[in-house]
Structure prediction request, 219 residues.
Amino acid sequence: MLQLEERANTRVDSPILDLEKFRSTRLETRPFDYLIVSDFIRPEWQDRLIADFPDVKKAGSFPLSTVNRGTEFSKLIDEMNGPGFRRAVEEKFSLSLDGRPSMITVRGRCRSVDGKIHTDTESKIITILLYMNPRWADQGGRLRILNSGTNIDDVAAEISPTVGTLLVFKRSNHSFHGHLPFEGERKVIQMNWVTEQKFVNREAKRHRWSALIKGLRSA
Prediction:
């Protein structure tokens, strides 16, 4: 009942992201620079944003331009792309993102082949994963921060992809991460600051072609 009352009383102009919680969270430096924040989405917004998450029925990443966005989900994206969050990330990771473009994609479903150990591409400076699932009981699909690039069980930290859980890390040659196999609904927003706009354009083009091919296969 309290959660329903909080939802009803949430003002449209009230903030979604808890930047103070982000700022007060300790930056971990081993095996690489990262931090994990629970309830980064304020609790009174969580149910509303789960309901407003784009209806992504296929596996893979989809640019925002390819999905339908509701008003509240769009507000969340605006806050993630806003100057307040960018400054908080800059301060936490002791870097400047001035002039660096951002790109955002969403995922709604996971395949059993997803989650293999990898680092992100060198064009990415910062990776942000904001999870949007109401609960998570499965051992698969929990992202693991890894001490090495060869063993999925060599775990420094493990993240349950429940709503409002945030992972931010600085990309490096040893920023290895992955998860055990999982197949089914797994909602996440991925945001990256990248080195140049051409990488944003290239990724958008790649995702459009991928979505087109997947559509043709399922037709």
User: Anything to note?
Assistant: The chain has a mean pLDDT of 91. The beta strands are 34-37, 62-63, 102-110, 124-131, 143-146, 155-159, 166-170, 177-178, 184-194. The chain has one domain: 2-218.
